[in-house]
Amino acid sequence: MARKAPREDPGEDALEVSAPKDWAAGIPAVTHALRMGYDQMGVRRTALTLLKVNQKDGFDCPGCAWPEGDHRSVAEFCENGAKAVAEEATVRRVTPAFFAAHPVGDLAGRSDYWLGQQGRLTEPMYKPAGSETYVPVTWETAFTVVSRELRALRSPDEAAFYTSGRTSNEAAYLYQLLVRQFGTNNLPDCSNMCHESSGSALTETIGVGKGSVHLDDLYRAGLIFVVGQNPGTNHPRMLSALEKAKRRGARVIAVNPLPEAGLLRFKNPQNARGVAGGGTSLADRFLQIRLGGDQALFQALSRLLLDAEDAAPGTVLDRDFIAAHTHGFEAYAGRLRELDWDDVAEATGLTRDVIEATARDVLAAPSVVVCWAMGLTQHKHSVPTIREVVNFLLLRGNIGRPGAGVCPVRGHSNVQGDRTMGIYEKPAPEFLDALRREFGFDPPRHHGFDAVETIRAMDAGKVKVFFAMGGNFVSASPDTAVTERALRNCRLTVQVSTKLNRSHAVCGREALILPVLGRTERDRGPDGADRFVTVEDSMGVVHASRGGLPPASPHLLSEPDVVCRLARSLFGPGGGAGAVADSDVPWAVFGADYDAVRDSIARVVPGFADFNARVRRPGGFVLPHAPRDERRFPTRTGKANFTVNPLEVPRVPPGRLLLQTLRSHDQYNTTIYGLDDRYRGIRRGRRVVFVHPDDLAERGITDGGLVDLVSEWPDGPERRAEAFRAVAYDTPRGCCAAYFPEANVLVPLDSVADTSNTPTSKSIVVRLEHRGSPSRGPGEAQPR
Predict the structure, then answer these.
(1) What digits encode the pLDDT tens for the residues 545-582?
(2) Three-class DSSP category at 644
(3) Mean of the per-residue pLDDT values of the chain
(4) Is the pLDDT of residue 305 over 90?
(5) Residue 403, Cβ neighbours under 10 Å: how many?
(6) Which of 56, 410, 766, 783 could form a disulfide with 703 if both were Cys (CB 3.0 to 4.6 A apart)?
(7) What residues does 17 pair with on adjacent strands?
């Protein structure tokens, strides 16, 4: 097809605002998906590609990590999955001529949307020190540059190796092996900025840092909590699972500061009710909670369960489960009886009547699943909040039986698999022992840097080389100005990428862009045979992913190839910096044969025995999970742990608001597909802040007025995000919301969750400074 020119950024003056939707998907979702596919791929390429998404003989969607069932439809994708595929399978190309016309300074001044619109990267590009322009180089030259800089370091800990969740299991395993053979555990990853709080809390309380449910558990649940997430935008296929659960009798409780269209009503475009009918009302109860109030909610629900047990002993709590499988109940129950209901009301913004009605739903449910996402994980008290979710479930034995359990919903495809493969700055000694047995070298034992610590170390000159396997670190990280300064302070930054993004424009004195195959593309080995990789979904199922499109460029390598070729360049005689010279790791074999990589994984990573045979079965296989499978809890006590967590009540100074960052509907993580958020009534713009109408009126700001967002941090300077359009919206009083990455500048690097060190992007104290009230753009609604 003829290549369609990238769409230009229309500018914020084009912003249009209308009333938000009260339903999601339906025919508009199909229309938008197909339009995006046509714009990026053309009609034939769209049809051929989308029919292979999430199929057993196809490729895993590069979008979210929501699992697929055993019985799959012909169109096993959602609107945003189709957008992700279109962005990767686009026919637009970023060639050396593009970089010659756009030096780094020009790229840095462009929007994330514009950068993403340019298309696929085609050749390795190098920005020499003292230059502002990327020039093409060979792969050999690129690996030589990286090896030279790594060998020149005084210590391996002067390098950091970031990973994005879209990396395959094979690439992630090889990557951590290279890094540990080099001599460091500096392996920050995107989990550090999203679900690290989930892993921290679950490892402590149930012994496994992953969810304990499968799709069948959702279908068999009596009650499903959906807390701090927006599946209609972030993982829309979850709506189909909730619809199926509802048909089987489940009730759904949505807990969120904003009413999300997908949880209000879902029009499934794959059935008649969704196309021609009214769709399915998903949320039986909507709790519009204040930001950060979830801990108080679950403490209150648990207190009401204790009270019900006191009133009718032996009828509410699962006493047999508590006695046989848990530790710490008495201390927990004693502290819970001291709960202050005034604190609960202040923290949640909910009345006691509403919470008691929710508790009656819990008492009536034979089993309960709690699902959550970053609305719970990005607060200072996120880990205690998720501990309270576990406490709540343990009271009635809702872990380790059908239709019940914890369900952290991971946002990025294979982010969970990355961690399983050893991408972690604090590796378990048992994992390092297994690597030593397999490869004959002793991996480093000291802890490395996570994402926040890496930014600090780069800013202080302690990390001099930054290597990123996928992702867009600049736009994903907090405290944008500090993050950009830190990266520019590096001697070398390397980005392994499929498409252009902001991290290519904010770079070290030297910089490399290494283009790789995407999920949609055919990966052929040295013998010309097609190869496949594997991924792990959000519920612990490992399966194959096989691309079918011709590569976007003959110069592309696969991610495993990049790692193996870099290793062969680095680990030669005189590897230096603690690296192992003349490595015994069979890097050449691994680069040629993914089966050899999987055989090694089978010997090192628990649960992967007979990996090659099991993953070739249609649909893959399920990893073991002791709490779910055996009601065995591998914690320090040998049991599931009740925990005592002092209640945190977010309190905001007078005149200030509590800000959360979130995605628009035309967005996946830091990838901006378009400039619309049709479920929230936003078109052709992103610099908006959603505020309760009374909070606007109290500050003398009109709906549509232009404001600066200023974050206040007691131990540091103020941070400012300029020229946002205020939008009157149904959000709790005292709370507001804005899109990331635009609002990331407001998140202080030192504002992190206790224990997990995750940035607190859902609880930033801000004030609004008025800039005047511009006239509304064409088509904008009047103040609502």
Answers:
(1) 999 999 999 999 999 999 999 999 999 744 434 444 44
(2) coil
(3) 92
(4) yes
(5) 23
(6) 783
(7) 682
* Complete DSSP assignment for 661-726: EE--TTEETTEE--S-BGGGTEES---EEEE-HHHHHHTT--TT-EEEEEE--TTS--EEEEEEEE
**C-alpha span between 226 and 457 (Å, rounded):** 37
Helices (H) and strands (E) in the chain, counts: 32, 33
List Cα–Cα distances, 650 to 296, 363, 379, in angstroms.
Answer: 10, 29, 10
Q: How crowded is residue 100: how many other Cβ atoms within 10 Å of its Cβ?
A: 12
Choose among 696, 728, 709, 714: nearest CA to 651: 714
Please give the distance of CA 47 from its chain centroid, rounded to a whole number. Answer: 28
Mean pLDDT, residues 725-750 = 97
- List Cα–Cα distances, 343 to 231, 470, 707, in angstroms: 30, 43, 32
Residue 165: pLDDT band (50, 70, 90) is: confident
- pLDDT value at residue 782: 31
| Whole-number pLDDT of residue 1 | 38
**711 DSSP β-pair partners:** 719, 766
Higher pLDDT among residues 53 and 574, named by residue: 53
CA angle 330, 363, 348 (to 5 degrees): 75
Percent above pLDDT 90 for the chain: 80
Whole-number percent of the chain with pLDDT over 70: 94
Q: Which helix (H) or strand (E) holds 492?
A: strand 492-497
Strands 735-739 and 688-691 come out as: antiparallel
How many other CB atoms are found less than 10 A from the CB of residue 143?
21
The residue written with tokens 């699972």 in the block is: 241
CA distance 368 to 276: 32
Please tell me the distance from the alpha carbon of residue 56 to that of residue 53, in angstroms, as a whole number.
Answer: 9
Does residue 741 have a cis bond before it (omega within 30 degrees)? yes
d(CA 740, CA 670): 8
pLDDT for position 715: 79
Separation of alpha carbons 631 and 633, rounded Å? 6
What domains can you pick out in the chain, each with its CATH number? 12-88 (no CATH), 196-408 (3.40.228.10), 657-770 (2.40.40.20)
DSSP string, 382-450: HHHHHHHHHHHHHHTT-SSSTT-EEEE---STTHHHHHHTT--SS--HHHHHHHHHHHSS----S----
The region, left, alpha or beta by phi > 0 then psi within -120 to 50, assigned to residue 734 is left
Residues 6+ apart with CB under 8 A from 232: 24, 25, 239, 260, 261, 262, 263, 266, 665, 679
pTM comes to: 0.94
Q: In whole angstroms, what is the distance from residue 190 CA to residue 164 CA?
A: 6
Locate 695 and state its tokens.
């909070």
* Token duo for residue 738: 């804005």
Question: Residue 7 — very low, low, confident or very high, per pLDDT cuts 50/70/90?
Answer: low
At 96, is the secondary structure helix, strand, or coil? helix
Which residue in 230, 287, 223, 232 sits closest to 252, CA to CA?
223
> Which of 594, 567, 611 shows the shortest CA–CA distance to 441?
567
Compute the distance between CA of residue 504 and CA of residue 108 in angstroms, rounded to an integer: 8
- Judge whether residue 783 has pLDDT over 90: no
2 by Cβ neighbours in 10 Å (0-12 / 13-18 / 19+) ranks as exposed
Return the closest-CA partner of residue 250 out of 226, 274, 228: 226
Higher pLDDT, 352 or 81: 352
Confidence tier at 751 by pLDDT (50, 70, 90): very high
